[in-house]
Amino acid sequence: xxxxxxxxxxxxxxxxxxxxxxxxxxxxxxxxxxxxxxxxxxxxxxxxxxxxxxxxxxxxxxxxxxxxxxxxxxxxxxxxxxxxxxxxxxxxxxxxxxxxxxxxxxxxxxxxxxxxxxxxxxxxxxxxxxxxxxxxxxxxxxxxxxxxxxxxxxxxxxxxxxxxxxxxxxxxxxxxxxxxxxxxxxxxxxxxxxxxxxxxxxxxxxxxxxxxxxxxxxxxxxxxxxxxxxxxxxxxxxxxxxxxxxxxxxxxxxxxxxxxxxxxxxxxxxxxxxxxxxxxxxxxxxxxxxxxxxxxxxxxxxxxxxxxxxxxxxxxxxxxxxxxxxxxxxxxxxxxxxxxxxxxxxxxxxxxxxxxxxxxxxxxxxxxxxxxxxxxxxxxxxxxxxxxxxxxxxxxxxxxxxxxxxxxxxxx
Length: 412
Known about the structure:
Number of strands: 30
Strand content: 35-45%
Oligomer: single chain
Mean pLDDT: 84
Number of helices: 1
Helix content: under 10%
Largest sheet: 7 strands, antiparallel
């Protein structure tokens, strides 16, 4: 059942200085013919389950030019359109694409998804907006929110950082905190954060995925990882890890150093607690006494391929801890030959051996969205006008991939 769209005359017009922003309620251009440019991804993405389907949600920007026989060449409206899109997370098949808002070119620099809750997507264009996660229908924007919550008039066109997902979408107005109901959109006083309160009106929200817009070497990678008592590390290729080597600063066995670009090697070891030994000419010898520490237990190098890995690390989703695939123990190893080379992803088993290897088509990783059966990776290749936004869904069972080149085509 589609909820009522509270937009005056089919569109809510929000005057911001000399610009007029048009929130479109559905997949129509209000009778104005326009030509659209290639979509460009606007971070972040959200992965959420809607009506039993695992979906990816994103905003894209497209250039928009008014056309038509009655429009003189070069005299039509030129601006930018913000669209919301949804794809099946496993197949990358499109679910819907819907226009959200049109405005002047370059006016959506701070646009982005804020969160999902109760099948409502909170988003920011030039102010707060809400859309359906079922079909992309725009529910509210600007004046619509003010009509539902008149006491908060003026609170919906604030800077993006004012709006945060906590138990619900929370905003601050005139020094007070308010939360918005994702079903009725009514605003009520928000409790202080982290009080552990629950409310049936506010089901658990889905937060956007962390992102690194630059996607530089080392993004979403850490050099060490543990699976219970088993430790894995990626030090320099000439490193010689010793039995009994103690854990050092910041709970690391590998000294903090920038290994990016240098040849590396994969090591595997058990761990045990004991008294750190003394470093002698032949390695760790004897005992220094004192308190116990976590020690490496019989470390051994693991051979992955003939060439030593570079720019390698254990894949994360933007958190300090590495990703672990659901089910059997394991890790994901990400590497590339150089900063312009395609990224290579491996799923490692508990013994450190590769269960499968997948070569991605891009060198820069900008976001990671894990799931129960597929791992979604968002990357870029090229630069300038030729830059492409690419989304890949990797099957965790066998490494098979589906690819969506957002700028130039569909899933493959």
